[in-house]
């Protein structure tokens, strides 16, 4: 008796090869029995009673840009579209347990009329040739990635503490909407792959089904809503904080002694610094017809700085008139009539100021208190209104 001996590795290789051949044969036969007999031109429904279940899932990847000027938001996301097609079903046991296959979307019917309504680019509808997974019970899954720029109403009146609600509007473009039953409870909006933006915070997301009636037809849309909020720390440190510091320096101009001769020079320097600084940061502010409260606050600080220059001029003018009046009173030589008439005006004004108990130092303190109050009120009002 002859005994044949095969190495273990050879036996395993033969089994693996035989299994792959059979498995490949079953897969090829499955495509021949199911896909090759399939007509991609015919939808999987004939009447409203045959309405196909349809789901849509968005997995957000990143928020690339928000354009306040164009009123748009740029997003990257994965899109999963699922529907039922009872013509593409088979018994897995007849094909070595194969319960799903993957093929190109051009070989099967797909709801290419599903479009992103608020997309501003030309590629609004899901017509691209992508991979489709087909399960043995007829469930189809179409997967694609998109770089979309969609419309979004951006209101920057509360900049840099503004937040916005942006949405993706998906729906059927043709009138056969009644034949596709959009399953809101089986659709989803997920953030498991989302990468946080440096400028914007994703506050919350939601999914809502909307119905629109027109021409005796009911159209259905899925709204994928997301609330985004600007991260204000960069603007606070680079813009708001320097403006507050300049406003504080503006107040200290009233503390500088008049005798130093630096009051007007310091006031003018701060005013020019304000003007140059606001010109620079104006380029970083969003361009919009809605004027931000932040811009109003910056312009208010510039006006206060300009008014400070005027108030310092008044204080200096009164101070030197007081000094001139005191100098005239201390003169001991006799005055003729003409000299008396010349000095009478300055003496009279000095007498009036003394009667009112107002001198340059008192007036300077009064002006300083007014500027402090206005600065404080404008800052508190700005923070209160943008936080409301």
Task: Report on this structure.
The chain is α+β, with helices and mostly antiparallel strands and 388 residues long. Helices cover 39% and strands 26% of the residues. It is rod-shaped, with a radius of gyration of 39 Å. It starts with 7 loop residues before the first helix and ends with a helix.
The biggest beta sheet reads: 7 strands, mixed
User: How many helical elements?
Assistant: 6
Principal-axes shape call: rod-shaped
**SSE-based structural type:** alpha+beta
Order of helices and strands: HEEEEEEEEEEEHHHHH
Low-confidence stretches: 1-6, 10-24, 334-340, 342-348
E-strand count = 11
Radius of gyration: 39 Å
Task: Report how far apart the termini are.
Answer: 97 Å
Amount of beta strand: 25-35%
Mean pLDDT score, rounded?
A: 80
Helix content: 25-40%
How would you sum up this structure in a few lines?
This protein is rod-shaped. Strands 1, 2, 3, 5, 6, 8 and 9 form a seven-stranded mixed β-sheet that branches. A four-stranded antiparallel β-sheet has the order 4-7-11-10, with no helix packed on it. The chain has 388 residues and is of the alpha+beta class.
Blueprint (SSEs and pairs):
Blueprint: H1 8-35, E1 52-67, E2 72-84, E3 100-104, E4 114-116, E5 131-135, E6 139-151, E7 163-172, E8 180-182, E9 188-190, E10 200-214, E11 217-230, H2 233-252, H3 263-281, H4 293-329, H5 337-355, H6 360-387
Parallel strand pairs: 1-8, 1-9
Antiparallel strand pairs: 1-2, 2-6, 3-5, 4-7, 5-6, 7-11, 10-11
Helix pairs in contact: 2-3, 2-4, 2-6, 3-4, 4-5, 4-6
């Amino acid at each position: 008796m002859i005994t044949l001996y095969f190495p273990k590795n050879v036996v395993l290789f033969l089994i693996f090869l035989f299994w792959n051949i059979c498995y490949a044969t079953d897969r090829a036969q499955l495509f021949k029995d199911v896909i090759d007999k399939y007509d991609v031109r015919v939808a999987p429904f004939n009447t409203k009673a045959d309405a196909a279940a349809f789901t849509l899932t968005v997995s957000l990847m990143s928020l690339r840009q928000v354009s306040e000027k164009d009123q748009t938001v740029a997003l990257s996301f994965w899109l999963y579209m699922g529907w039922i097609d009872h013509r593409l079903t088979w018994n897995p046991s007849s094909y070595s347990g194969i319960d799903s296959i993957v093929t190109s979307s051009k070989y099967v019917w797909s709801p290419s009329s599903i479009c992103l309504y608020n997309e501003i680019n030309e590629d609004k509808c899901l017509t691209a040739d992508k991979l489709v997974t087909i399960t043995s019970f007829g469930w189809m899954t179409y997967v694609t990635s998109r770089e979309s720029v969609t419309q979004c109403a951006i209101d920057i009146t509360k900049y840099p503490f503004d937040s916005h609600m942006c949405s993706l509007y998906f729906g059927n473009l043709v009138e056969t909407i009644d034949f596709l039953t959009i399953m809101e409870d089986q659709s989803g909006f997920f953030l498991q792959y989302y990468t946080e933006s440096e400028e914007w915070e994703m506050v919350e997301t939601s999914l809502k089904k909307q119905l629109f009636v027109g021409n005796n037809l009911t159209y259905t849309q899925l709204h994928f809503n997301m609330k985004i909020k600007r991260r204000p720390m960069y603007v606070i440190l680079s813009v708001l904080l320097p403006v507050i510091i300049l406003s504080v320096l503006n107040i200290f101009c009233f503390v500088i002694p008049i005798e130093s001769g630096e009051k007007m020079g310091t006031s003018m320097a701060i005013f020019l610094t304000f003007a140059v600084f606001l010109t620079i940061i104006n380029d970083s502010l969003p361009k919009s017809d809605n004027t931000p409260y932040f811009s109003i606050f910056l312009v208010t600080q510039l006006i206060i700085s300009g008014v400070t220059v005027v108030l310092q001029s008044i204080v200096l003018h009164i101070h030197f008139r007081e000094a001139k009046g005191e100098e005239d009173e201390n003169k001991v030589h006799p005055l003729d009539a003409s000299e008396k008439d010349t000095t009478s005006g300055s003496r009279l004004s000095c007498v009036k100021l003394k009667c009112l108990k107002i001198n340059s130092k008192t007036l300077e303190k009064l002006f300083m208190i007014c500027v402090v109050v206005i600065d404080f009120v404008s800052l508190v009002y700005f923070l209160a209104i943008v936080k409301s």
